[in-house]
Amino acid sequence: MHSAPSVRYPVGRSRQLGAALVAIWLVAAISALAWVYLGERVGWRQWLELACLLASGILASAYWRAMPTGTLHWDGQSWAWETAGSGRTVMQLEVQLDLQRFMLLRLVADHGGTRWCAVERAANSGRWHDLRRAVHAPAGSSASGAMRGAEEARS
After folding, report:
1. What pLDDT score was predicted for residue 152?
2. pTM for the model
3. 35 plus 109 within the same structural domain
4. Are residues 29 and 102 in the same domain?
């Protein structure tokens, strides 16, 4: 049995998530503009929809720009979030979405803070498989622990 290796993986703004947000917003914009164009008259409902469309675009852009940047670190026992400014924080990691080349992760700190990270293969394709093995490894699994378990099973 192979255990997950220790891994450090860079996390930044996800281009795939950004593209998905833009695509969703464009579909909403096209439908809103079609409603305005095909309607007999422009009333308060159409103006409200256009205002909501503008607000959703601003919020999606702000969300994407505020995405956390740092490094995920798996040492074989626990996950940590590292940034240049705030140092290292031990976190519990939960996979919320795994699309093979893109993962949405939820990191929960011991003090209760939550951070959402969109991680993609393009950030470091050479370590992507190591990251995926570590993300799906049981907490506390390590190479030495796996070797001890194999030795105990033989006894």
Report:
1. 38
2. 0.71
3. no
4. no
The confidence score (pLDDT) of residue 16 equals 87
Total structural domains in the chain? 2
Which segments of the chain have a pLDDT < 50?
A: 1, 141-155
Say if residue 59 is in the same domain as residue 77: no
pLDDT score, position 150: 36
Whose CA is closest to 10, among 58, 65, 72?
72
The contacts of residue 10 (CB under 8 Å, 6+ apart) are 70, 71, 123, 124
In a domain, 111, yes or no: yes
End-to-end CA distance of the chain: 17
pLDDT of residue 143: 44
Q: Determine the pLDDT at residue 154.
A: 38
Q: Is the dihedral of CA 82, 86, 91, 93 positive or negative?
A: negative
Looking at residue 138, which CATH number applies to its domain? 2.30.29
Taking the alpha carbons of 8, 13, 15, 18 in that order, is the dihedral positive or negative?
positive
Q: Give the separation between CA 131 and CA 103, rounded to whole angstroms.
A: 10
Region label for 14, one of left (φ > 0), alpha (ψ between -120 and 50) or beta (otherwise): beta
